[in-house]
Write a structure and sequence with these properties.
Oligomer: single chain
Number of strands: 8
Shape: elongated
Low-confidence stretches: none
Order of helices and strands: HEEHHHHEEHEHEEE
Mean pLDDT: 85
Largest sheet: 6 strands, antiparallel
Radius of gyration: 25 Å
Strand content: 25-35%
């Protein structure tokens, strides 16, 4: 949860004019900030948004309460949308849509999910005998450690980070190059890795 500051609670009085109607509204600054974000997302003015809220809640009588509820509902809807986007299902969909070998990696270097081209790369580069279970013991090593990749992503504005990698099964090894980006999930932090010379 984000820490609240005194500025968030401070009431602010503004006059919102739209269509010849001037409305004096006193709201906490946090709600004015939320209204501004909502208006920018809808490509309208705060006045247009306040008019819409006033018209849809005309029977309520209390415009400031209606604005607060509209702000909370807008934030809740945005949060739900972001939660759907920030899921392992979305990561799987991205990997499946990718034509090159790709996989998702945890901070402990555990491969969480992968696509069919990555599976084919492993089968092609690390062939096993029919009864050999070496592929179940697949190991991954990166030239950069995962913490360094996250640090570089933070520093470089999420620009993909290229690194070498080695995958091995039993006594067999394959060396390649991959491009890593932060996966669109909040917790835990994951990387999506795209092999570009496999």
């Amino acid at each position: 949860m984000l820490p609240l500051s005194a500025d968030d609670f401070g009431p602010e009085f503004r006059v919102v004019a739209r269509g010849g109607i001037r409305r004096g509204i006193r709201l906490e600054r946090a709600f004015w900030a939320s209204l501004k974000q909502m208006a920018e997302a809808r490509k309208c003015t705060i006045g247009m948004l306040v008019d819409e809220i006033a018209e849809s809640h005309a029977d309520q009588g209390n415009l400031t309460s209606a604005i607060r509820v509209a702000c909370m509902r807008g934030m809740a809807e945005e949060n739900l949308m972001l939660r759907k986007l920030a899921s392992i299902r979305t990561i799987n969909a991205i990997l499946v849509a990718c034509p090159s070998p790709a996989f998702a990696l945890s901070s402990s270097k555990k491969i969480l999910t992968f696509n069919a081209p990555f599976q084919q790369l492993v089968k092609r580069q690390l062939p096993t005998a029919p009864n050999d279970d070496a592929r179940h013991d697949l190991k991954l090593a990166l030239d950069l450690n995962v913490a360094d990749i996250f640090a570089r992503l933070d520093t470089n504005g999420e620009t993909p980070v290229a690194t070498g990698f080695v995958i091995g099964a039993g006594e067999r090894r394959y060396r390649g190059q991959l491009s890593a980006v932060r996966a669109p999930v909040a917790e835990p932090e994951l990387l999506m890795a795209f092999v570009f010379n496999g």
